[in-house]
Known about the structure:
The protein is mainly β and about 500 residues long. The protein contains 5 helices and 31 strands.
Amino acid sequence: MGRRDALRLSLAAGAASAVTLSGVRFARAEDGATASRKLRGHLPTGARDFVYLPVEIPAGVREIAVSYSYDKPDVPKGTPGNALDIGIFDQRGTALGGRGFRGWSGGFRDSFAISAEKATPGYLAGPVDAGTWHVVLGPYTVAPQGMDYEVTVTLRHGEPGRTPRPGYPPERARGRGRAWYRGDCHLHTVHSDGRRTPEEVAAAARAAGLDFITTTEHNTTSGHAAWQGLWGDDLLVLCGEEITTRNGHWLALGTDPGTFLDWRYRARDDAYPRFARAVHRAGGLVVPAHPNCPFVGCQWKFGYRHADAVEVWNGPWTADDELALAAWDNMLVVGDSWLPAMGNSDAHREGQDVGLPQTVVHADDLARRPVLEAIGSGRSYLAESSKLSLRLEATTPGGGHATLGQTLRAEPDTPVDVSLTLRGAPEGATLHLVTDQGTVRTATGSRLTWRTTPSLAAYVRAEVRHPAQEGSGLPGAMAAMTNPVWLGSAPERGGRGQ
């Protein structure tokens, strides 16, 4: 990229989210030939979110390989340095929606290759057809000095070979009929920025006592076909994606296999509703992930209008989760709709436990649609491990009964008996009943009861917490928590109808 391109990029940086620069052209060559070209450039601070480098590919190419590097100058403390993501689109184009999408590895890899027979994890195997491909760079953060980059594109000529047919997971496991099932719906493998293979994640899920998992790689569907032979009667594998925009991350859960969701937009672009609707058409759920994460680009800025649930608990309990819990609880009180809470591990590597936490759902069967319906209905609680189980229910003297995600229909002054029963509580744990007024009852042990009326409590939910650290001034870490039981009446749930 020359000085004129750099100046144009800098002046137009705030006008849109992407720019296309000058690229490279390859000539047709004989089978067995290899040709490489380098693209060098400078990105100023304030560069566009995505920079496209065109690559003119002739007929007769068997494989395209791309590697890249960039400088990492010293920056003042507290100032973001350089971080550059990478991916590629084929000759079908780069328009929002991802029709030409062929892969994304973010900043996790410095090289990748694609052919008809195979592709680097994170990328999609298929023919390297002639036309204009685009290497896409995502300058996630740029140092005050700017960023110098170098991209090397290598073409290997020859017969294209045959693309294997993907083996997608089945929609049903054996299950136990209508029962409680445990799942972790936010997981990463080597198909994005995880260190584990799918084989290792499946083994960890079984060891954690899980019944279902969802594959949610960052901005790619390459993991959907990576679980061949790893599912079984005891483990349901659902397809999904973690969409990592510059204004927050969200999970597409339980979508049709192969469904790709774009990430190249911000909240101000008004594109998110379009892709949320696409998830619903593909049979999935929209779940904002770690909404209070403090890292650049992670905090949720899109609002909750189109969501079906929200990830309140992400990995081991931290202050971020405490903030997410408070915001979620406020949503239960304010407005005319509510979202169920989810808990997922977001595990990437060894030392991050799959199933810490997990969402435990009461579903009609261990199958895709019943599990998603239970998550979206709030018939669930969150727990730090499969050692812990609980039951929260509300009853009236006249025989009324409701449990998680349900509504106990009763007149305002009708007595309501609430009971929380716990098994496998960690040592020293405290049980809490929480309503729209806050915490109303606390106890130790394995059981807690309370009498109220719908006029005094719009809902009741439960928390089980570890002992607080002395002198911290913070509540103890969460061991388990529930979705609410509504008393009297309930607001509508958010999501598909919005």
